[in-house]
Amino acid sequence: MNPQRLILAGGSGFLGQALAKHFQALGWEVVVLTRNPQPNRAAREVRWDAETLGDWARELEGAAAVVNLTGRSVDCRYTEANRRLILESRVNSTRVIGQAIAQCAQPPRVWLNSSSATIYRHTLGPAWDESGTDFAATPAVKDEFSLEVIHAWEKALNEAVTPRTRKIALRTAMVLGLARNSVFPVLCRLARFGLGGRMGSGEQFVSWLHEADFCRAVEWVIHHEELSGPVNFGAPNPLPNAEMMRLFREAVGAPFGLPATEWMLEVGAVFLRTETELILKSRRVVPGKLLRSGFTFRFPAMREAIADLRTRNGCC
């Protein structure tokens, strides 16, 4: 019997590599769509430009699932050029995958397309689950552009005509993993060098997810046909920024952590070529659909997630 086939678009990044390993361990065939195929990778890589139909589209025929993780990193300054790249890389890849699925004689059963938990309104109050519909921007945390991108991203997914393919918008929170471009090693270093104090007020909530639970949740959604539409991918226990930084200080044995005021963060963001919205927006998001469908998190609390990652890598 042939193995089930998973198509990973934009699968050469941190989360794509984690997913490839996870599904290969389950015996699946994994095909990665990437602009720059590399030889001798564990998963077969196929070239695509993430904008136009081509030979890559044949890979979707008869596949069990497609996961689209394509998107230019938002960890940059939001210049006009970067804004265009961030928006177009997400919207164009989503549209062309929809076109490829639509022309399949045997289309994939499910299509999981990246989105972001940032879609929900900045809040210090009750957490948002998928029933939340307040997507208004909060000028104080400068999230207007992010919301513009996410709305266009999900609109492209929703408008794709794929009647035989179930569609999921992965509203994903910050994922903690061991790759260099994961936030986990960065937070470890900050704490170790005495910079692990609260950021801004420290009251803003952080929604997060261990990379193992991200992979397990993708597998769960693929197999649970009752799930469709937006699905929040985040651990059930978001926590304030000040508490998160305390846990990182505790993990590395740092006796103190210098706090960073908002003006310090603004100055630092210029030098680091990033935006303060990534730190200051309060993302208090919970995985309502996953929990109601019976999914159990291996790492529901951040303390256990940090301990596991430290044990596996020793980076802290």
Explained architecture:
This protein is an alpha/beta fold and about 325 residues long. The protein has one domain (about 5-315): 3-Layer(aba) Sandwich (Rossmann fold). The chain has helices at about 15-25, 80-100, 145-160, 185-190, 210-225, 240-250, 260-270, 275-280, 290, 300-315; strands spanning about 5-10, 30-35, 45, 65-70, 110-115, 165-170, 175, 205, 210, 230-235, 240. Strands 3-2-1-4-5-6-10 form a seven-stranded parallel beta sheet, with helices on both faces. Strands 7-9 form a two-stranded parallel ribbon. Helix 3 links the parallel strand 5 and strand 6. Helix 2 (about 80-100) packs parallel to helix 3. The longest helix is centred in the N-terminal third of the chain and has 23 residues, at about 80-100. It starts with a strand and ends with a helix.
CATH topology heading: Rossmann fold
Largest sheet, if any? 7 strands, parallel
Tally the helices: what do you get?
10
Nearest-integer average pLDDT: 94
- Strand tally is 11
* CATH domain class: Alpha Beta
Output the radius of gyration: 19 Å
Query: In order across it, which strands form the biggest sheet?
Result: 3-2-1-4-5-6-10
Query: What portion of the residues fall into strands of 2 or more residues?
Result: 15-25%
What is the fourth-level CATH superfamily? NAD(P)-binding Rossmann-like Domain
Shape annotation? globular
Query: What's the architecture in CATH terms?
Result: 3-Layer(aba) Sandwich
Distance between the termini: 44 Å
Q: Name the helix and strand elements from N-terminus to C-terminus, one letter apiece.
A: EHEEEHEHEEHEEHEEHHHHH
Structural class of the helices, strands and pairings? Answer: alpha/beta
Number of domains: 1
Uncertain stretches: none
Q: Report helical residue fraction.
A: 25-40%
